[in-house]
Amino acid sequence: MKANNYTKLKTIIEVMGKYGITPISKVKRSDFMEDMGFDRVFLDGLIFDVEDALHLELTEEMAHSLRSPEELIRHMIQHQN
User: In which domain of life is the source organism classified (predicted)?
Assistant: First the structure.
């Protein structure tokens, strides 16, 4: 069953909340590593958890190119299985 955009967004926000990213509107353009202090392992964990929650898989190159919550959300909502 494919999730609609609202369901995907809700799921992504829930996962981000587990990583301390709330409220999303205040940090949506912040760089995960530069502004939010994430290290590569922590960021990879966040992306993996979002992929797992949405039952999607990104290429390693795509996962490493995502720099902000906004980019992650936009890509995951547009991504199709």
Answer: Bacteria
Q: What CATH number does the domain containing 44 carry? A: 1.10.1200.10
Q: Kindly report the length of the chain.
A: 81
pTM of the prediction?
A: 0.87
Q: What residues contact residue 68 under an 8 Å CB cut-off, 6+ apart? A: 28, 29, 30, 31, 32
Digit-coded pLDDT (tens) for 5-47 = 999 999 999 999 999 998 777 888 999 999 999 999 999 999 9
Number of independent structural domains in the chain: 1
Q: Which domain holds residue 32?
A: 5-78
> Are the C-beta atoms of 15 and 46 separated by less than 8 Å?
yes
Coil, strand or helix at 4: coil
